[in-house]
Amino acid sequence: MGFNCGIVGLPNVGKSTLFNALTATQAAEAANYPFTTVEPNSGRVSVPDPRLWKIADIAKSKSIIQTQLEFEDIAGLVEGASKGEGLGNKFLGHIREVDAILHVVRCFEEDDVAHVAGSVDPIRDVELIETELMLADLESLERRREPLIKKARGQDKEAVADLAMLDRVLAVLHEGKPARTVPIKPDDLSRFRRMQLLSSKPILYVANVEEESAATGNGLSDKLEAFADASDAGTVIISAKIESEISLLDDDDRSEFLETLGLEEPGLARLIRAGYDLLGLITFFTAGPKESRAWTIPAQCRAQDAAGTIHTDFARGFIAAETIAYDDYIAFNGEHGARDAGKMRAEGRDYIVKDGDVILFRFNV
Question: Nearest CA to 354 among 282, 277, 295?
Fold first, then answer.
């Protein structure tokens, strides 16, 4: 499964700096003026998971392959983006293509870095971008409504159902609430997703703080966290400046640097875990002498569908998923020990894969 996050925010909040840190590149030019990023830069990031190394050590694997996530650095939005300000329509189109939004919010004061509004106010900034996304959705739905009404009058059942969904979403948007707050029944989920609404995207707020506040946050990030909690969204506190420095260090220097800052791990690790929660993702593993590998799948994924993430033949010819829970794999020193202890289970195609499962798929094509 692809995991594609768009990094958005106002100009000069640290988006490109964070992107560079995440991808350990300088692919996105970071500069102190708006619209440095015009086309979205994409980067794939390996997911740090200590469990994979423990599994590989037991399996005596020759290689280790981490699962990866994709991030896109999308140019800064400004007020009026829904009406085309600041090349807004183009940027909103980039947001429409991502699975989730990482909204970087400036939570630091620095005279040398100009703020487009002239002052730092994280809640104002968040509401400004949220409003632009909702306005774009309103315009999109209003355009679609009249053609749907005509089809619904002709007794088109799909059009009737689409119109009912559209009107429910419009009512919520007119109340000033994003589309993701609309209660959706499981049977209606695919219909809702087909609407491709910007404000329906899962969102994670990234509070970009100064170096001294990286471990504990500050008053501005506290306000953002309170806002996020009230709107059922998540928050991660990161110093993009620190993350960009960490990305250039080797392992030993990185550990020492983190210790001096009172941090146990880089912000990237916390950001990825929060991203997993945001999209409801989990990890399963495959292990053997050749390689140990991590795979990303959605929670509640069936064993046959998980097999398909490795290769379509695995799903097409699925026989069984020989499964060991991660804790059992470690406790009994791998596949043979777990099998002898009765901890390896032969699961069928409808088994719901658990986070950390170590699986050997049996198939025949």
Answer: 282
- Give mean pLDDT, residues 222-247: 89
Q: What is the spatial distance between Cα 177 and Cα 169, in angstroms, rounded to a whole number?
A: 9
Residue-wise pLDDT tens digits, 272-319: 778 777 888 899 999 999 999 999 999 999 999 999 999 999 999 999
Predicted pLDDT at 80? 54
Give the global pTM. Answer: 0.81
